[in-house]
Amino acid sequence: MKRSIIVGNWKMYLASMADAHILATSVRNGIEGLRTEEIILCPPSIWLSEIAQIVGRGKIQLGAQNMFYECEGAFTGETSPEMIKEMGKYVIVGHSERRKFFGENDLDINEKTIAAVKAGLTPIVCVGENKKSEKISEPIDQLKKAISSLPKTSLSEIIVAYEPIWAITSKNAQNNAEPEYVAKVMTKLREYVHRDTPVIYGGSVKPGNIQEYAKRPEIDGVLVGSASVVAKDFIAICKSWAKIKNFK
Ligand code: PGA
């Protein structure tokens, strides 16, 4: 059966642990009884332990927004795959904001992808082109580099997130990519992974457009940024997805 995955990437949006507490509790309560397959929250790593207490062993899984690829050592400020594994099962790797603001390159992302799989984590590998264009060589190239040297047998253990950078919510814009366009790119991306590898979409996913993505069989889920820190919006996204996918 195809997986259905909804990821909430909280980025660095919330001001305090108290806010994080309220958000996680509201989401947990709001999706109670909902049978979407996988709902993954990615709070800032410093709050993972607190959020783990709130979501417990329920429906919600946890992930980190980033990690380092080394297992241990003198790496000030970094978090290892094993540390994350104690808190959750997933880790976002190669988000465009990591590439842009923290200088991560394809090699770093490749090392992180491999380290995550090795540690038993599921990396959510982000790829996406800078400018809206019909050329999809950029995300394909990023994906090929991210999974380079990863054993073929491990390809089903990753999630690919197609996140066109121009579609990500910014201060001035909300330009979600057309579901038809997303589906077209995803079909191409799939050629490089395992047939069971989930491919999800991220970029200005909101309660008002989630239905369009859920209706496309090529799209296995969504990675939600800004709308994931508004409890009612994130819950609405999960509910719409479940409704369209016919989860009872
Ligand atoms: P957005 O962010 O939903 O705010 O566009 C998506 C992402 O960057 O992961």
Describe, in plain words, how this protein is organized in 3D.
The protein is 35% helix and 15% strand. The chain is built from nine helices and eight strands. The protein has helices spanning 17-30, 48-55, 81-85, 96-102, 106-118, 137-146, 179-190, 210-214, 231-244, and strands spanning 5-9, 38-42, 60-64, 90-93, 122-127, 159-162, 199-202, 221-224. It binds 2-phosphoglycolic acid. 2-phosphoglycolic acid binds at residues 9, 163, 168-169, 202-205, 223-227.
Features:
eight-stranded parallel beta barrel, 248 residues, binds 2-phosphoglycolic acid, 9 helices, alpha/beta, 8 strands
The helix-strand sequence is EHEHEHEHHEHEHEHEH
Radius of gyration: 17 Å
| Strand residue content | 5-15%
Residue stretches low in confidence (pLDDT < 50, at least 5 long) are: none
Q: Which term fits the overall shape?
A: globular
> Strand tally, please?
8
Which ligands accompany this protein?
2-phosphoglycolic acid
Order of strands in the sheet with most strands: 1-2-3-4-5-6-7-8
Mean pLDDT across every amino acid position: 94
User: How many helical stretches?
Assistant: 9
Sheet bearing the most strands, described?
8 strands, parallel, barrel
Give the helix proportion (percent range): 25-40%
How far apart the termini lie comes to: 15 Å
Structural class: alpha/beta
